[in-house]
Structures are given as C-alpha cells and as structure tokens.
Amino acid sequence: MKLTLKIWRQTGPEDKGGVVTYPINDVSEDMSFLEMLDVLNEDLIAKGEEPVAFDSDCREGICGMCGVMINGEAHGPERTTTCQLHMRSFRDGDEIVIEPWRADAFPVIKDLCVDRGSLDRIIQSGGYISANTGSAPDAHATPVPKEDADRAFMAAECIGCGACVAACPNASGMLFMGAKITHLGEFPQGQPERDARVLSMTAQHDEEGFGGCTNLGECSRACPKGIPLNVISQMNGDLLRATRHQA
Amino acid sequence: MTAPLIEGLYREGEPIADTAAPKVPIETMWTQRKFDAQLVNPTNRRKLDVIIVGTGLAGASAGATLGEAGYNVKSFCYQDSPRRAHSIAAQGGINAAKNYKGDGDSIYRLFYDTTKGGDYRSRETNTYRLAEVSADIIDQCVAQGVPFAREYGGLLDNRSFGGVQVSRTFYARGQTGQQLLIGAYQALERQIGAGTVKMYARHEMLELIVVDGKARGIIARDMVSGEIQTHLADAVVLATGGYGNVYFLSTNAMGCNVTASWRAHRKGAYFANPCYTQIHPTCIPVSGDHQSKLTLMSESLRNDGRIWVPKRREDCEKDPREIPEEDRDYYLERLYPSFGNLVPRDIASRQAKNMCDEGRGVGPKVGDFRRGVYLDFKEAIGRLGEDAVRAKYGNLFDMYKQITGEDPYQVPMRIYPAVHYTMGGLWVDYDLQATIPGLFVAGEANFSDHGANRLGASALMQGLADGYFVLPNTIRDYLASGPYEPIDEQHPAVVEAQDAVEGRIATLLGINGDRTVDSFHKELGHIMWEYCGMERTEEGLRKAIDLIRSLREEFWRNVRVLGAADTLNQSLEKAGRVADFLELGELMCIDALHRRESCGGHFRAESQTEDGEALRHDDEFLYVGAWAWGGDNSEPILHKELLEYEAIELKQRSYK
Ligand SMILES: Cc1cc2nc3c(=O)[nH]c(=O)nc-3n(C[C@H](O)[C@H](O)[C@H](O)COP(=O)(O)OP(=O)(O)OC[C@H]3O[C@@H](n4cnc5c(N)ncnc54)[C@H](O)[C@@H]3O)c2cc1C
Ligand code: SF4
Ligand code: FES
C-alpha cells in the first residue's frame, strides 16, 4: 500500500509543533500500526532526518504505553490498542493523520509522546488497598462471591493507556478512575478505605487538570479494554456516600 | 580437558561458592537466615538509602516493602510509569504450594518439580526457599485486591500447568502478570504518596558506581531532558528483568535490555549461565522483515490443537484445508506417542524448527524459509463443537485473528517457537547479593532459581518471592552495618562513571555512519537465533563468535544515531542497549560453547541420545558457569560453582 501520513512533530514541550506530511510506500497489511511507523523511521534515518518519537513497549496490547490519535480517534478506527491495530484496517492511498493524546493533564514531551504522570498521581492519592507485606491473613480467610470477583476483574483490566481521556471532549479521567474505584470497591478488603479512596482520588483528579464528566460516553467507546460506563456511576455513588458519611 | 577449539576464548578462574546459606537442614535454612540477619532500628532506617532499578514484579514489590519498612528508597524504570514493566505481559499464572485442592501438594513437591524442570542446574537452597515463601505470595496479593480467578463458593481457583501432577497455579484469566503487577504497583504508589519511595520514571540506569569495592550508586539518564544524574546510596538493587531481546525478535517488550546487568558485570559482578534461554513453542510466526516482536499464544492451546506439517515440501504452499489426512505429518504424535502434542516446551520447539529446516514449514517465506507449523483445531471443533472451543480459547483465537488476519475457526493456526525468557543472569548468593558487596539482584535479572529450563508459572513466583519476602530480609543484614561512609560527587569513582556515560553517548552520536541501530540489532538477533538458539553446535557457535565480533566492530564504526543528547532521543536509547547486547551475545556463545551437554532449553547437537533426545552430563557439568569480565581486550574468566544436591536425587529425563 501507499499512504500519506500527516504526523504531529514537536521538538519539545516549549516548541509549538505542527503537522508534517510523509508519503510512505510498501506498507504491508500484516504490519501493525507501530511497525509501519518503525519502517517510516528507518527511512527517515537513512535520509538523515530525525525519526518520529512515539511510545510503545509490550506491543501486545497490555502495557498501556502506546497510544496516539489516528484520524481523530484514540488508538484509531478499531477498538484496540495502537500496537494491536494492523494496517489491514486501512486502504491503499489513504491519508492518515497521527497526533499525540490531547489533554491538559497530558502535556506533550516530544512528537507523539505525552506525559501521563497524572494518572500515577491519582493512584498515589488512594488507588490501593493498604496491606503491608508479611501480615496478610490466609487467602481463603475471606471468600469473595464470584459475581463480585468477576466485576472487580472486569474493572481491573484497565491498562492505564489514557485513551479515555484523549477521546473525551472534556478530557475527563473518570473512566480510568471509576475503573480503579470499582475494582477495589468490589472486594471485602477494599471496604475500610472506600470513602477515603473516592474522596482523595477525585480531589487529585481535579487538581491534575482533568475535566468533569458530562456523560458523553466517548471514553468507553474508545477504551481498548471495554471498560463500561457504569464504573463512573459506581464511582459517583461512592462519592455521594462518602460525602454523606463526612457530613 | 579443554578442547583446542575453545582455547583462547576464555580462562578458568578459582571456583566460587555460596557462603550465605546457613549450614542447617534445608527445611529450617530460611528461618535461620532471617533470624541471623541483623536488625535495623526503625529510626535508623530513614538514614539508609536504597536504589532499586526496575519496577516489575521484583522491583515494585521490593520498593513497596522496603518503603513500608521505612528505608529511603529511590526507584527507577525506563517506561513512563512503573505499571508498564514487562511483568505485565505474563499470561499463564503463578505457582504456589497452597495445597488448596488437597491433591498432595507441598513445599517439597513444588521444590522438587521446579528443580527437575530446571534440569538440575539451579541452586537447591534458593529453589527450596522459593517454594517455601510461595504460599505467602498469594496471601499478600489477595490482601491487596489482586482479582484472582474464583470458584462459585468464593474460594480461589487453580489450574494445572504442563509437567506437573497437581493443580497449584493461581491465575487471573490470561492476565495474571498484569494483575500481579498492578497489585505491586499500587503498593509502590502508596509508598510514593507516603514519601518513602521517590520514583524516577523515564530514567535509564547507564552505569553502576562502585566505591572501595562496594556498590554505592548509579548513573542514570533522564530520558526526557537527557540530563546525566548521579544517585548515591548505601545499597543498590537491580531488578531489571531478562535479556531475551538480544535475539531482537522475542516475546519480550521492546525496551527489555541487559544494560543494567551488563554495566554491573563490567564493574565486577559475575554473570551466570548466560546461554540458558527458554524458547516458547507456541508463538505467532514472523510475517515479514518489518516485524518488531513476536506474540505468545498461551500454551494451553496444545491441550486441544494438533500440530502438523505437510509430508511433502510441494504441499507447503497449498491451502491446508486441501491437504488430505494421509499427506499430513502429525510429527509430535508420531515421535512421542505417550506425550504427543503435550511434550515439554523445549522438545516441541526443537521439533518445529527441525520440520522447517527440512523445508516443510508453512506460511509466508521469510528469507529462504517458511517458519511455521500448523496448530489445528479442526478435530477439536468436530469433537467439542465450535461453541465449546470458543468458550475455552475464544480470546486467544480473536488475538490470533487480529494479528494475522486469518480466522482460526476456519484455517489452522500457524505457530513457531520464540525466545521467551532467560534463566541466566547476574550471579547471586543465598542473600541475592552479587559478587560486588552492596549490589543485590532480584527477579529475572539474577540466575539462581531456574537452572536450565523452566516450567510455566515459576518466574512470576520468583519475582514476587524475591521482592516481597527474600530481599527485604537479606538486605537488612547488609544495611545494618550502614549508613556507609558518605561519598562526594567528586569522588574519583563517581567522576569516572559519569565520564564513561557521557563519553559513550558522545561517541554514539559522533559516529554518524550509514546503518541504523535497528539494522545492527536485527543482524545480531539473527546470528544468535541461528547459532545460539534452540540447537547449538560447536562449529556454529564458533562461527557466531566471529560474526558478532565483526558486527560489533562495524557498529562502533558505522552506526548512525541522529539527534542530540539533551532531549528525548529514542535512537540513542536503543544504541546504548544494542551496544551492550553485542557484548553479551558473545559471552552467551562462549558459555554455550564450553557447556558440551544438552540441558533444558540448551540443546547441544553433539550431546544427544541415540534417539535424538537431550543428553546431560552431570559428571562434567554439574555446576553454574559464573563469568567474570576479563577486560575490553581480554577473554572472560569462568568461575565454577559446583551444585550440590542433598535434598533431591538427580535423574535423567525422558519423554518418550
Ligand atoms: C509474554 C510473556 C509471558 C509470560 N508468562 C509467564 C507466566 O505465565 N508465568 C510466569 O511465571 N512467568 C511468565 N513470564 C516470565 C515473567 O513474566 C518474567 O520473568 C518476570 O515478569 C520478570 O519480572 P522482573 O520483575 O524480574 O522484570 P521486569 O518485569 O521485566 O521488569 C524490569 C524492570 O526494569 C526496568 N529496567 C530495565 N533496565 C533498566 C535500566 N537500564 N534502567 C532503568 N530501568 C530499567 C524496566 O523499566 C522494568 O521496570 C512471561 C514472560 C513473557 C515475555
Ligand atoms: S479506562 Fe480504558 S481507555 Fe481509559 S486508561 Fe483504562 S484502558 Fe485506557
Ligand atoms: S505497546 Fe503495550 S499496549 Fe501497546
């Protein structure tokens, strides 16, 4: 296939950045989207031009490191991670616009790489169960109903990629946060810190510059792990409960 | 005894031994060691600085635990978040001797299976301890909220993994590694929030600082600003994972590397058993030259899929559905009637390679060869129905389709072996301390628990055992004698390390040759796979060493790294890693060459039984090969640690 790539280039956080057009030939449909960028980069280096910076690591759809906007869609036209998107989703002659995640809470570092440290800081503020090493009771001491365990698991599948934020017109991090709150909130172990968790996480979320949720649902549609919108309702329920308890 | 062929490639040094394990029966050894280890008063812990490089299962769990204990921890990883460490990709499960199924499992049995699975090349004492603390791991993870699979009664479920007769593998669908890592990551983030751990994401360790013979810090590069930083501490922990990416194509993440270990090796840490690589038989084959990595397909597929290739080469291009039964060679069923498609990983892998080398491989031609064999579910679909197969393997079938564009319900899958896991690593004693005092090594980065092979589900166990339970106890003994004398950033050893890093970066950026870093990496990978992969010969290894040497020479003369040092520069990052792989690759070949026996994943063509099976030589090779760096223009030095098996009896293996 022959394609025309329009890629966001930005030398650093201070640079204004802009779109540069690169024609590319010999793209095979077996390539993943990132392998296609690898091939482009090899060509650029051969020509003495600096390669395009983009993040990736596992290339298996599980580490959450990759992620770009492709023709305006987070991770591109299919519901998967960018590394698992393959070129057979495109046609010969296509023009593809490739940009970094867009959100105030994700400042651009260079080209397609952004800083998602804000997601880690949300977890730091309370996205855990406090259990010091070495004092845990036997794992069978607390049975967990299978339905609860399954729901916890579904929410725990979030890979922290940030596509939900990038897809949201408000750049809200609610799906990511709701997933964690749901995961931990389904377990008996997660109950003692349940109120404190939702209060501190939501406070941190706002402080980081993420927007509020207006129920548009773009996040869940873009999520490569299919995290459902109802984790946000669960989080809002927890928030209400926690503020009542506080009052 | 040294054959002339090997002369000049290495020297033999003094034997080495582990002196840290207490001389008591194996069942009480760990309790005794914990008791003997000196204590550190809680108020003194704050004054002690520990650097932990790596935030995978081993590093994140160690960081969280040492942070909780009150030490001053600095944690490093090259990704943008500690949650992305490569442990996240592990699919299958984690072993633990819980005996929840009441099927006769015990610490001893897990220890026995692990040692046997390692072909008796791991250290008995360490392996026993691994089995001993395994049960605590599950308790710890459940308390943190790791969503392991459960049964309807609310209790934890188990599955059985290849090669054992008990059901001891805990799992979280196909995402066990992810869930375990997120648990450890959350515990780590909690400490970061509490201020006991300071996290340096997007930082890469490029040098170890050794002062007066002790590990005292690291030089790291801030991968965003390019700043070269000095971090000093009382002890350094490396939990930097495996080096499978020396093969370029592997199931490892793109950034996996050997740099941290290799830099420590060059500063005096011994590197043990480098040639032991585990090859996984069921990966999606290479589809073309552009390929950047290989994807693992769970081994559970071999329970129902039948593996075959066409009997005749002429049929290899045909649509597999048009090849009649009588023209198919179900070679595993033919060669190993009692195990069939369920033979161990190394056998399944080697036979697939043999079929392709004979010219009977299937799928696209990559280079001169087709590298793939069929894994066929037609019979299973006929027997169980498509719905049942979908329920069992649906997600794997979808993943296969996503990557290859072929529907495995209609046409057989194609699979091929791929490099997966490395059992070699920095040599450590029972305390996980390297040959440099103050340097500790945890998880896949050390060599101790796996020997020459690996059963599934034991690497995750080792990472968490080391990080949560072993290291925090043993490092305590070392730290109790600290805080060590403060060092100045102007100390000659620090300046030397900084200069070395800056010099290397300047050199790489200054060469401005014709070839990209990736092209060197691919070529190295090709050499390693051909000659130091599943099957090795004296001649091939010898050739590989020559090829690697000239490739390395060309690299330093002709690599092209664009861009600057003081910005995010991914080519520069890669170049530094490939430079270290080019040195490690040679050592792997020397190690493989000197070990004239077949052992686990290491099949030496000269050492096989009459019917072509791996033949170990316990009389000659019952030792760990621990290599010391010999200097830039000098050969490495082999120190042998003899392996003593007291709790377990040595046996040859047979899968016929
Ligand atoms: C696809 C796949 C499936 C697997 N499935 C299983 C399974 O089912 N069961 C099982 O038991 N095992 C499995 N394994 C093996 C297991 O996942 C690994 O052995 C284990 O997770 C390694 O953990 P670790 O903590 O030692 O290292 P890793 O998780 O690899 O972590 C390495 C860390 O070091 C950091 N790092 C590395 N170099 C540097 C540097 N120079 N500077 C700074 N930071 C650095 C990285 O950023 C990372 O944080 C699998 C492996 C693969 C590849
Ligand atoms: S909720 Fe989905 S889109 Fe958002 S970070 Fe998690 S996996 Fe990515
Ligand atoms: S690179 Fe890991 S999810 Fe894409």
Uncertain runs of chain A are none
The most extensive contact between chains is: A-B, 76 and 78 residues
Mean pLDDT of chain B: 94
Structural class by SSE content of chain B: alpha/beta
Distance between the termini of chain B: 32 Å
For the largest beta sheet of chain A, what order do the strands appear in spatially? 2-1-5-3-4
Overall 3D geometry of chain A?
elongated
The ordered H/E elements of chain A are EEHEEEEEHHHHHHH
- Overall pLDDT metric of chain A: 97
Poorly predicted regions of chain B = none
InterPro entries (chain A): 2Fe-2S_ferredoxin-like_sf (IPR036010), 2Fe2S_fd_BS (IPR006058), 4Fe4S_Fe-S-bd (IPR017896), 4Fe4S_Fe_S_CS (IPR017900), Beta-grasp_dom_sf (IPR012675), Helical_ferredxn (IPR009051), SDH/FRD_Iron-Sulfur (IPR050573), Succ_DH/fum_Rdtase_Fe-S (IPR004489)
EC number (chain A): 1.3.5.1
Keywords (chain A): 2Fe-2S, 3Fe-4S, 4Fe-4S, Iron, Iron-sulfur, Metal-binding, Oxidoreductase, Tricarboxylic acid cycle
Cofactor (chain A): [4Fe-4S] cluster; [2Fe-2S] cluster; [3Fe-4S] cluster
3D architecture notes:
The complex is a heterodimer of chains A (about 250) and B (about 650). With about 250 residues, chain A is an alpha+beta fold. Chain A is about 35% helix and about 10% strand. Chain A contains 8 helices and 7 strands, in the order E-E-H-E-E-E-E-E-H-H-H-H-H-H-H. In chain A, the strands form 2 sheets. A 5-stranded mixed sheet of chain A has the order 2-1-5-3-4. In chain A, strands 6-7 form a two-stranded antiparallel sheet. In chain A, a hairpin with an 8-residue loop joins strand 1 and strand 2. In chain A, helix 3 packs antiparallel against helix 5. The longest helix of chain A has 17 residues. Chain B is about 35% helix and about 15% strand. Chain B is an alpha/beta fold. The two termini of chain B are about 30 Å apart. The chains are: A alpha+beta (about 250), B alpha/beta (about 650). The structure holds flavin-adenine dinucleotide, iron/sulfur cluster and FE2/S2 (inorganic) cluster. The site of flavin-adenine dinucleotide has 45 residues of chain B, from helix 3, helix 6, strand 7, helix 7 and strand 18.
